[in-house]
Amino acid sequence: MLAGCGDGGVASTPAPPSVNASLANLVASESFTNDAATHSASFNLGNATTISGSSASSTLTIAYDQATKTYTLSTQGRSQSFSPADITSNGNGLGVFKTSTSPYKDILSLNAATFGWSNGPQYVGLGFWQRNAVSGSTQTTSFDIFTYGLDTPASGLPHNGQATLETFAFGLTTTPGYEPASFSGKGQVDIDFQKGIFSTSTYVTETSLVSGATATGGSNELTGSGTLSASDGILTGLVDYSGAHANTPGILKGRLYGASGQEVGATFTGNGADGSVVSGALVGYAPTGTSLTPANLSQTHLVSDQLYYTLADTLYATHGYSITAYFTSNGVDHQQLTQHTSGGIDVPANYILPYVQYAKGDEISGGPSNFTTYQKTVNGQTVTTELYNSGSSNRAYPLKPYSPYILRSNPPHSHTHTTIGGMCMA
Predict the structure, then answer these.
(1) HSE-up of 168 (CA within 13 Å, CB side)?
(2) Strand pairing partners for 135?
(3) Exposed e or buried b for every residue in 143-167, given b needs 16+ CB within 10 A?
(4) What is the DSSP secondary structure assignment for residue 113, as one 8-state letter?
(5) Are 162 and 301 in contact (CB under 8 A)?
């Protein structure tokens, strides 16, 4: 580019970029979009246990100054700046800043591509700001956890398809009388952009903050689900956290990040009836080389084969000179049925009818209009199954659109009535 200057032209120096395209290369000052939660707690330093705690969503600002490479955080009347001189560790995706201004000690941890998280998210980061003050044998702590970054513009919001992303979750859990613990783990989040719904699940490991003891296993889990706004990419939902000393329900707030909504960031808070408190955050992204099995979010849009645990009732009748009929309630909790994305279903056996694997080609016409009817001969026995068609458009029968009913029979002698609840997915 040439610009006129006096009698001649000189090559102008290109202006530096004024917009950050990713967290991996910050080139401009910015006050980042974020979602935050504040966990307030007090601890007995004598026996390393929690005295009390509470958690709630909060409004936070995180501003980055490109000239000084300084982050300034503000929330609820508190503010603190963290400069490069405050960095105590930097690399492998995590930057840790520490400052001390009596009576407070402040620690800021940022988990983001800014600090070399090369196979992590590029547009969303996870951070927490911890402020500690000690008086005698009591420590008071404010723990502000947040996700932040480059959120998705309205023009880039996806409205079709489904995404399955790997998640990294981190947080703090406190329960009166027990040692406080951090937790972390990897899981996944599934988002149906057309229906505007999501679900997430992460198995976590708790680490006690003083003793270093760990707790892990199937009972330590974060689960949640909710809705996605089509207009602004905002996620809202409910979560449940189960830990060593906590069973805590809560709420989740987050949003899509990246130019086309390819990443997710969210925070969650919970306060249990037993005094347990949880505050945390998760980021969702698609790491290179990772393959995840998509989860089904509704029965009208299966993206992978779905196993159900079902309940069944059986009516068996014999016909002859005299008619005898009896009704048996099986009361079986663990009867399994599988629905395939190919259009087929696997129906479990009972003491009258055999196990049947139907393919899409086993569909027949002539059944009820609101059901899909399958028929197949197994070991000389003709078996018919009618599957109620899920969806809000199917209203001819007083059945819930997300609870299909199965009727399978060997006319005219018997039939089994199986209910599949939408919340009974395995």
Answers:
(1) 17
(2) 138
(3) bbbbbbbbbbeeeebbeeebbbbbb
(4) G
(5) yes
Per-residue pLDDT of the chain (426 residues), as tens digits, is: 223 334 445 556 666 668 999 999 999 999 999 999 999 999 999 999 999 999 999 999 999 999 999 999 999 999 999 999 999 999 899 999 999 988 999 999 999 999 999 899 999 999 999 999 999 999 999 999 999 999 999 999 999 999 999 999 999 999 999 999 999 999 999 999 999 999 999 999 999 999 999 999 878 999 999 999 999 999 999 999 999 998 899 999 999 999 999 999 999 999 999 899 999 999 999 998 888 999 988 888 888 999 887 766 666 655 554 444 444 444 444 578 899 999 999 988 876 778 899 999 999 998 888 889 999 999 888 888 888 888 777 766 544 444 455 555 554 444 444 544 433 333
CB 256 within 8 Å of CB 151: yes
- Looking at residue 47, the DSSP 8-state letter turns out to be T
Tokens matching residue 420: 């599949």
Residue ranges of the domains in the chain? 30-285, 306-419
Residues 6+ apart with CB under 8 A from 253: 35, 57, 234, 235, 236, 266, 267, 268
Q: Give the CATH class of 30-285.
A: mainly beta
Q: Alpha-carbon distance 284 to 376, whole Å?
A: 44
**CB-CB contact of 341 with 304 (8 Å):** yes
Report field, pTM of the whole predicted structure over 0.90: no
The tokens of 137 are what? 């044998």
How many angstroms separate the CA atoms of 52 and 277, rounded? Answer: 9
Residues 6+ apart with CB under 8 A from 338: 305, 306, 307, 308, 345, 346
- How far apart CA 380 and CA 19 sit, in angstroms, is 71
Give the tokens for residue 407. Answer: 């009727």
Q: How far apart are CA 255 and CA 63, in angstroms?
A: 19
Residues 6+ apart with CB under 8 A from 187: 166, 167, 169, 200, 201, 202, 203, 222, 282
Which amino acid type is present at position 406?
I
Reduce the DSSP state of residue 395 to 3 states and report it: coil
